[in-house]
Amino acid sequence: MDSLPNSFNPNKRLKEEFVTNLTGSSMLEVSALLTIVSILVILRHSFSSNRHFDTSLKKNDNEILGSKDWRAYMATMAVDFLVLVLPNILFFTVLADWTYLWAILLIIVLFFIIALKRSDFPSPSLEKRIHYTKEFISSYRVSMMILTCLCILAVDFRIFPRKYAKTETYGTSLMDIGVGSFVLVNSLVSRQARNVSSVRWKTALQSTSPLIILGFVRLISTAGVDYQVHVGEYGVHWNFFFTLAATSILTSIINVPPRYSGMLGSLVLVGYQICLMRGLNLYVLSNERGMDIISQNKEGIFSIFGYWGMYLLGVQLGYYLFFGNNSSAMLRSNRWAGIRALILSILFWIITVLLDRHVERVSRRMCNLTYVTMVLALNLQVLAILMLSDYIPGSKTSILEEAFNRNLLGAFLLANVLTGLVNLSVDTLSASSVTALFVLVVYASTLSTVVGIADFCGIRLKFW
Question: In a 10 Å sphere around its CB, with 0-12 CB exposed, 13-18 middle and 19+ buried, how is residue 432 labelled?
Answer without folding.
Answer: exposed
